[in-house]
Write a structure and sequence with these properties.
Layout lengths: L1 H15 L1 E2 L2 E2 L2 H26 L5 H4 L3 H9 L5 H8 L10 H6 L11 H13 L2 H39 L13 H30 L2 H11 L1 H46 L3 H28 L1 H14 L4 H25 L3 H10 L25 E3 L6 E3 L20
Antiparallel strand pairs: 1-2, 3-4
Helix pairs in contact: 2-11, 2-12, 7-10, 8-9, 11-12, 12-13
Bound molecules: zinc ion (2 copies).
Amino acid sequence: MLNKIRRFWSQFFSKSGSINNQPLNKVSLVVLIVIDIFILVNVFTGLNDISRWYISPLQAYPCYSQWQNYRSQTTTDKDYEIVRSSLFNLINQTTQEQIYQQAEERHLGKVSQTCLQYANYQDQINIPQNQQITQNIEQKQAQVSQFEQSNNNIRAQYDSTLLEKIAGQSREQSINVVGAEKAKQELDQNNRRISTRKQEISNLKTQLVTKPESVSFLAFLQEDSNFNQVEANYQQASFWYPSIQLAFQFLFLVPLILVALLVHNFAQRREYGLISLISWHLLVIFFLPLILKIFEFLQFGVLFRFIFDILSTILGGLLFLVSYVYILLIPVVGFGIIQLFQKVILNTKAQAVRRVQDSRCINCAKKIRQHDTYCPHCGYYQYIECPNCHNLTYKYLSHCHHCGTFQDSSHNHA
Ligand SMILES: [Zn+2]
Ligand SMILES: [Zn+2]
């Protein structure tokens, strides 16, 4: 097996850097690598774009996270907070419902009807009158923090005034303008102002939350059946989303691979060296992301969950054994991919058969005369001794051309 892999790599690299087994010059190699990088970047950009074509769970259920957050909160202010979140300035007169709906325009799939209803309730709350209420609340909150700030300043001064008194200094010498008594008065006045503002804020909040449009929105939010349905659908969508993305990425790669494969096989049959080389590079570039995606799917996709579930029921608590299974499974998949490559593309035997029929050199594909033992172009030795009749016969061909004995061509590599 190790030998097989080593041969695969050496074939792989000699094929990637030579035309008809003649090594490429350095300039061509550099040009080829630049082309490879350019195409690779584009393939990954395309994969990234196509993976976002199908609507994501967050786009299909845009209300879910806010709703779930609301239901899990226990603060008394949560009703006001969620009503306030519906109030925002409309940009280009686009309502929340329209914003949610826009996800359908550039994506496959539908936005949840319940979430559109949710947005519709929010849009009914979002009127100038209600916006005015929140603006008032914000103003009053700003005033409260202003008073608190000035109280903090007074306290800082008040403490130092006290300290000066203790130290026995006269009032005139003090750098503080505010006397202790005056400071105390202002402090009390500010505290009264703060509690009035806080009461006003609380009244305004109640006013907003008890508006009919707010009441119907909150009733909708508390309805268990609405939320449970959205939650179940969201979780199902999140479960399938990676697999759907992967399926679209496969759809993107498979036609590219097929075209590159067709061109490559055609060019090889006709011995079009340069086209065969470039299509070979394209093939490898398209295959790389495909292999990456296959491994990603094995590790994170639905298949992984499936295997994981089966193994965890069989193995119970010994979940580390799942890693053992994967460590065994992934090399097997990798080996399978290498075998496929060997069979379909790096098929030296099929290439040798074609070249012998064409009376070309088995190694460099240049025309040679029949019975030339060595290629005059590349010096490659074309024959092998038959183990049965000991005459010279073609390398890689399945039968001796003197006695017809079967040759195991896998041992034919000189
Ligand atoms: Zn040759
Ligand atoms: Zn023979």
